[in-house]
Backbone:
């Protein structure tokens, strides 16, 4: 034992004697061997300076770089989706003349950008239902689960073993016993407190379970970044859900810490459901090792990989004499550290720069990069009515105070900012000019833009966007407006917390 202690002491002395040189080598690794934003690099160098050696270990845990990885690239889906994407580009170009007097003409470039850079097909035969509280959302989800006939695909960042999930489990078991294919995918960080016996119980009932980036050695989770933050449910290819709700008692307002939980979730019927299915399948294939793209039955494809019903619906709805029930145009857009483009962030940028009247933003975390912050400030300074709504209480203190700091920049540019006082605001979305809205899983922060796997629905529809804006205006009744005078009057302790948190914002 004494020899071991002496050896440890010798290593420690050597580290202290050579600390300058070790830090220099580690700094070179951070600067030259990883392509990162300069602000993030300087932040990590600061961490390394104040926490020598251990700061680099923290860097290794938080900053594995998967940006160039091809681990999520599935050749089968690329091959099978290439024809519909090319076909849609042709359809959009052929019909663009009919849109010359339409407000959607201004969003032609955005639609094509999303289509060409990430294969986000514009579907036009959809209906959208909006949920803002967990009880109604999960009641509707259970009803649809009970009606499933072929398959159920469930993906949530967080799944907790509480009364909410326990009310869903019997339905999943019952459907599996009936021969319905049931798959459940969760993130290794978000589901870290779920007992293994629950997953074993589901598997024993014939339910397939996948874990995205599982923990190392039990519950030791070394990947803090690159989490799968998506929340997707697809049932029989007919119904899809996407939004902010996870599975846990706080999301149905049962946690006294948060009180009322205000969120936004979309229920979609139509061809856009297949786009959600593709996102689920890509994540499932990686996590579970099962290639869902071997069968076209999950994607509305025939044996040749075509989707005639989707393309015909596009032709009809893009026609100026479209008849029938109201149909919603939307694109499912996804982003993640495996992609070369910051798809959701760039989608927001185009929306902000095209705004002419107003921009309404709801987000629990507001830590934008320079481009997003500049776009919002430019809009506000140009006379666009920019409004930001954030929670009044933090669930992550450093993130909250960084959010408060960036809110000050918007106030200085002339935007109006509000804190939601009736519980916790978790809704994640943007509404522009009463025409276009974008809601889903992505927060308005660097983590969602670069480090997490996210999915949003961009909706090109006045009626749906109008409903979301009415909800936003109703939420304002439960908000406190933060004025420039109020912000300028905050005390020194709040200012100190803001500045420290903002300094660390590239890591948050």
Residues:
């Amino acid at each position: 034992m004494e020899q071991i202690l002496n050896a440890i002491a010798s290593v420690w002395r050597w580290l202290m004697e050579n600390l300058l040189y070790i830090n220099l080598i580690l700094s070179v690794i951070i600067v030259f061997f990883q392509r990162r934003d300069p602000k993030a690099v300087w932040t990590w160098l600061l961490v390394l300076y104040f926490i020598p050696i251990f700061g680099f270990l923290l860097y290794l845990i938080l900053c594995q770089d998967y940006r160039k990885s091809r681990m999520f690239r599935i050749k089968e889906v690329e091959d099978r989706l290439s024809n519909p994407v090319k076909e849609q580009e042709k359809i959009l170009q052929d019909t663009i003349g009919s849109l010359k007097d339409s407000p959607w003409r201004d969003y032609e470039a955005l639609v094509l950008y999303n289509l060409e850079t990430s294969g986000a097909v514009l579907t036009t035969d959809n209906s959208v239902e909006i949920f803002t509280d967990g009880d109604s959302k999960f009641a509707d989800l259970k009803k649809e689960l009970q009606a499933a006939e072929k398959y159920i695909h469930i993906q949530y960042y967080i799944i907790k073993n509480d009364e909410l999930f326990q009310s869903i489990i019997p339905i999943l078991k019952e459907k599996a016993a009936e021969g319905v294919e049931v798959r459940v995918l969760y993130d290794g960080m978000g589901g870290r407190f779920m007992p293994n016996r629950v997953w074993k119980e589901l598997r024993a009932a014939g339910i397939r379970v996948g874990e995205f980036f599982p923990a190392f050695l039990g519950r030791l989770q070394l990947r803090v970044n690159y989490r799968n933050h998506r929340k997707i449910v697809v049932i029989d290819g007919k119904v899809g859900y996407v939004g902010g709700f996870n599975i846990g008692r706080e999301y149905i307002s049962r946690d006294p810490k948060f009180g009322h939980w205000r969120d936004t979730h979309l229920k979609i019927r139509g061809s856009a459901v297949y786009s959600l299915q593709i996102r689920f399948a890509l994540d499932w294939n990686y996590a579970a090792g099962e290639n869902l793209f071997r069968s076209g039955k999950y994607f509305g494809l025939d044996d040749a990989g075509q989707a005639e019903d989707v393309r015909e619906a596009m032709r009809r709805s893009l026609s100026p004499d479209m008849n029938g029930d109201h149909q919603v145009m939307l694109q499912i857009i996804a982003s993640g550290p495996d992609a070369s483009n910051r798809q959701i962030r760039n989608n927001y940028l185009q929306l902000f720069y095209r705004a002419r009247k107003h921009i309404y933003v709801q987000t629990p975390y507001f830590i934008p990069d320079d481009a997003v912050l500049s776009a919002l400030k430019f809009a506000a300074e140009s006379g666009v009515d920019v409004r930001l709504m954030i929670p009044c209480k933090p669930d992550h203190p450093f993130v909250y105070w960084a959010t408060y700091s960036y809110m000050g920049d918007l106030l200085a540019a002339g935007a109006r900012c509000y804190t939601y006082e009736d519980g916790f605001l978790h809704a994640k979305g943007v509404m522009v000019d009463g025409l276009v809205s974008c809601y889903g899983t992505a927060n308005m922060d660097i983590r969602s833009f670069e480090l997490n796997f996210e999915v949003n629905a961009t909706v090109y529809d006045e009626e749906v966007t109008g409903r979301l804006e009415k909800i936003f205006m109703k939420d304002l009744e439960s908000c406190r407006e933060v004025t420039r005078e109020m912000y300028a009057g905050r005390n020194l302790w709040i200012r100190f917390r803001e500045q420290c948190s903002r300094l660390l914002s590239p890591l948050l």
Summary: Confidence is low (pLDDT under 50) at residues 66-72, 74-80, 303-323.
